[in-house]
Amino acid sequence: MNRQRKPIAKPSAAPRAKANTKRGGELKILLRRVAIQKRVREVAREITRDFRGQRVHLIGVLKGACIFLSDLIREIDLDTSIDFMAVASYGKGKESSGQVRLNKDLDSNIAGLNVILVEDILDTGLTLSYLCRILRERKPKTLKIAALLDKPSRRIQDISADYVGFTIPNEFVVGYGLDYDERYRNLKDICVIDVPSA
Length: 198
Prior knowledge:
The chain is 20% helix and 28% strand. It has three helices and nine strands.
């Protein structure tokens, strides 16, 4: 994968405020919606610049990347198409099982296309390594990764993203598509949540 070409945006060091939620459990805001929107626009501009005059095919990893992808694609000034894949690795807990299972495959052929795999978070790298291996076998013209969040301290597989929204510490986060036990995906901010250890 290509190295990041510009400094990665990082969460503000300012004290984190508590999120406004009625769902129970303590949430602390890590990334505010305004910062997320700004960074998504910047990532879209990078993609537009890198693929000027070409078509890009975005593949969202369900379910977590759906909100990031929908905001990202509207900011990309290129001919675009989309598809989705779904995998399972977390189950209902906060720790990955270490095994990735494909639950939904692509609906269309990607041979010869400029493919950007869009993920909510690059964590251990197990999921993205698995998906990249599958996608490369299908002969895309190019294959890049766009990850909203990067948590390098958790990396197991040697993989990096071409486009990164934010590098974050080793915290369990929810909101903006990310969940805990299928909850909190609809939060507009990205928040740290205190969850019990397995």
